[in-house]
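ERR on first pass: missing label on line 2. Operator R.T. fixed the label and resubmitted. Corrected input:
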Amino acid sequence: MSNVAANLEELYAEVPPQVSLVAVSKFHPSEMIREAYAVGQRKFGESRVQELLKKIEELPHDIEWHFIGHLQTNKVRSIIGKCALIESIDSEHLLEYIDKESEKAGVITKILMQVHVAQEETKFGFAPDELIGYFKAHRFENLKATHICGIMGMASNTDDEERIRADFRAIAEVYRQIKEDDSLQLRGFDTLSMGMSGDWPIAVEEGSNLIRVGSRIFGERLY
Ligand SMILES: *Cc1c(COP(=O)(O)O)cnc(C)c1O
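pass 2 clean. output:
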């Protein structure tokens, strides 16, 4: 037995009630997911399509899977209809592709737009201005089978708390600018996903209502 149940319990004692928790189970075996499931956890996050599909087969059907990794268009079809939320839409091309495939499959796919503010060049996502521009131009109105539920973002990978806070604040600002623009008439745009094991308390202070926590629950990942 691992400490998964105890870690979760500790975490839930700290997370405010208005904040949802995705347990990021990538690279961890299905048995550990079962331990979290047994104590009531239902939202799990995965970043690789093959691994996600294998776990969907093995695990209970009422799990809400969040896809949080970079998604290639050639893998879209295999996960359509299987995820509660795809959090990592990092290009308009990917979004349009998901919309087309969702329509074909007769499902509505819920997604978050990933915004990039962190220092690292390797992180995916829309630049803040690009994302605001996408909404102001009302391009989302062309979507037929995709529901944009909000925004996901990551802070720079650093120990500098002020930097982390500034990154989360910048992401939250993009979220608010879009959400509070009445001319857009967005419905169900209410999710701000920010914060991981090392930085979620700062993210919550800056307005996050969905955190994605992995190693704090499941331990270090063996890549
Ligand atoms: C891996 C991952 C997490 C979880 O990271 P931890 O530091 O283990 O909590 C959260 N979000 C994304 C997008 C990830 O890829």
